[in-house]
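During the no-cost extension, the postdoctoral fellow (Dr. R.K.) reprocessed legacy sequence entries with the updated structure-token encoder. One reprocessed record is reproduced below for audit purposes.
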Amino acid sequence: MKAKTIEQDCYGCPSSWSGELEDGRHWRVRYRWGVMRLTVDANPNTMSVFSQTAPEVLEEVEYGDEFDGMCGLDEVIETFGHLIDLGSAEWKRGEEVS
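Re-encoded structure tokens follow.
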């Protein structure tokens, strides 16, 4: 899969990244409680929060300790780079997350 866009939604507890794939589906990485998860919406152009179906969990890994929830993009790429190409994704500017 190749990401078209990327945005950091939250910086910690959970660290969260999301964007759109080239086929129009939305993807998300969320890291909280020592678990990093990559999900993808089943239908193109449908945000999972509005969808009638839950996003598909492509991979879930234990990372860090059980209370950890902060990571950087480099750790996301190291963990899920075999599933999603984030290298040429366009950065979206969202509202500042505090």
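The chain has a mean pLDDT of 86. The first strand starts at residue 5 and ends at 11. The remaining legacy entries will be reprocessed before the final report is submitted.
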